[in-house]
C-alpha cells in the first residue's frame, strides 16, 4: 500500500511536492461506522421521533445527539461502538493508558463507550 512503500518521483517532477493529508476525527469515524452497523441502524430507526413502536426499552436506554447514538448509563452518555470498531476502541484505550491491564483498560473504555458484552 502507499503508506508503506518508498515512492520515487519522476525525473522531471521539479523541486515541488504536493502532499494531501486527510484526518478523520474520532467522532466522525465512529459516526460513519455507526451508520453502517445494522444493530445501531435499528436503534436509530426506533429513536426517530415519528417512530412510535413498542420499543420503550430502546428509547429509555439510548439517545441520539448530533446524529451519534449514545447509551444512557447512570445519567451519563456513552458512545455506542459499532461491532466493526470494538477491537480498535479496546486496543487504542489499552495503548493510551500505557498497558495497565484489563481492569484499568475496562474502566477507561466504560467511562466513554458502550457495547454489548464489553466485559468479555
* Alpha carbon gap, first and last residue: 34 Å
Q: Class by helix and strand content?
A: alpha+beta
Strand content: 5-15%
Strand order of the largest sheet: 1-2-3-4
Q: CATH topology of one domain, anyone?
A: Endonuclease III, domain 1
Query: What is the percent of helical residues?
Result: 40-55%
What would you report as the Rg, rounded to the nearest angstrom?
20 Å
Q: Count the E strands.
A: 4
The CATH class of one domain = Mainly Alpha
Architecture (CATH level 2) name of one domain: Orthogonal Bundle
| Gross morphology | globular
Mean pLDDT: 77
Order of helices and strands: HHHEEEHHE
Q: Which residues form runs of ≥5 with pLDDT under 50?
A: none
Largest sheet: 4 strands, mixed
> Counting H and I runs of at least 4 residues, what is the number of helices?
5
Structure description:
With 120 residues, the chain is an alpha+beta fold. It has a domain at 36-114: Endonuclease III, domain 1. Helix content is 41%, strand content 14%. The chain has 5 helices and 4 strands. It has helices at residues 26-36, 38-47, 56-61, 86-96, 102-112, and strands at 62-65, 68-73, 76-80, 113-114. Strands 1-2-3-4 form a 4-stranded mixed beta sheet. The longest helix has 11 residues, at 26-36.
